């Protein structure tokens, strides 16, 4: 047990299963499935977190019935073909001392008939607000089949070596749709009253318990509150939790928040929500039942987890993104290496952001996600020969490259012309509600302290000097600079870029127009910052709506709510034509109408950058090995900088 985190590190028994600690890697889809089956990639992914010290792992949702094909890579839990994959996963996880449950689910109306060309199933014909497909109200024959398929899927999970199963009865599930008066309008024995609405869950629970026997662990995940009219309130869910305990079928209760297809930002809270924002829900449930309760929701460092347990709000802590970002979160927490945890930023860019785009899960900070077999801990071997490596540029790409090269045993010198490391991430984290983005630099700085990298700050090394010193390898990570826009007036004194605004002390006038050609935080963050300073702010965007990229990171809803309060004017579908004095010209993308904005004090350009690659080209042919990484290749986001830094540094 860890002295610093005695609650989080203490063992606990769930049913007959002993867990070594209370850190849970709760369910989250990975899109690793091939032919809708689990496989080796899952095994290495979960295995790495088991090796990293997690107490309990719960798989991504596995679908119990062919009528549920909510997205392309959903795993079929009802198929015996899943067994080889299951055995690989459970074998790998058990080998490292963790326990693993399979999450079973049917998404009900929170899905689509696009894949299986069937009507989606629902408690009642109530369309989901995201998918907008009116479901078929399932009849008794289908209910009986669903119950049989739950039992069959649970039995297969047991055969596959899992220690238990968890029903998703939370943010995206048919079981919750039956529990909730918002989606269950039935008049038969499965609706009409709280007792009727819980009947399906009871019958599924009974069938599964009968199939798997008394010793297999059985849990259910509930949304603490639905946050919709006529939906389940926390009081309702506390009553449901009591009824579930009374069934004497389940061994634990897991929790989540809201309805995924209504307000996903409540399920995977972005950094503008407070840490541990959902703990009050598990707390209320825990006060009402004796079953162990798992909490969740932006709990990303061991102190937060410890506090939640010490204060009695839950028995176990779900920390999902914290362990995506650093698979060794638990082990580092309990071994006194807490400062070496690559703490999650709650940026949602590559975990939920990629999965939402039907890509495999990733992490902006952890290039090994989904590639544990080749890049997991211990997979990158020490270099056969020590090289002298120069890294030019100390942004995230350069820092990560220096770290990876030094970890392979090379002698590394890192040159940065500024007096601080961190590159443009430092400026991005100055925007409102974006400060945690800067934690990435703190994480890298802590890790750099563990390797003998020579860091030269305020040192703008010349390419001739590098060529003269003749290191074995040079990695250029000199980043990017704003592009000059080919439109009139951009060289006027009252026009500046986001980077200039954030790095120079430029006093702005009262009326500011932001021209957004990126659709990300550059414009929305600056707009908020200026509105907070009392400016009148308008954003012009050529996109269909302002802040398009914020949908991917689940920041869109909350940013729009704040923008409205701060009276930021949003003008989409307009292309910027130029500036003439204090007048800005634009054109509506579809109608072709010419538009003018007059009496504008300052124009701020959120426009694409260009690679700052002059240094790289000046060294070409002059050193033995020359590489360039990150924005210096092409301006992109943090994930590209970090993964190219890692790949290049660890391949030397
Ligand atoms: C990419 C991603 C996919 C998820 N998929 C599931 C899922 O299949 N089943 C589920 O119950 N929760 C799912 N969740 C929700 C997580 O279990 C968890 O509640 C959420 O990430 C908040 O916890 P955190 O702040 O510790 O990350 C998913 C979360 C993420 C980030
Ligand atoms: S992409 Fe961002 S939110 Fe997701 S796990 Fe990585 S750091 Fe955390």
From TrEMBL:
This is NADH:flavin oxidoreductase. Residues 10-333 form the NADH:flavin oxidoreductase/NADH oxidase N-terminal domain. InterPro entries: Aldolase_TIM, CHP03977_oxidoreductase, FAD/NAD-bd_sf, FAD/NAD-binding_dom, NADH:flavin_oxidoreductase, OxRdtase_FMN_N. One of its GO terms (molecular function) is FMN binding. In the N-terminal section; belongs to the NADH:flavin oxidoreductase/NADH oxidase family. The keyword Iron-sulfur applies. Its cofactor is FMN; [4Fe-4S] cluster. Residues 388-619 form the FAD/NAD(P)-binding domain. It holds the Pfam family Pyr_redox_2. Signal peptide: none annotated. Keywords: Flavoprotein, FMN, Iron, Iron-sulfur, Metal-binding, Oxidoreductase. The lineage of its organism: Bacteria, Bacillati, Bacillota, Clostridia, Eubacteriales. It comes from the Bacteria.
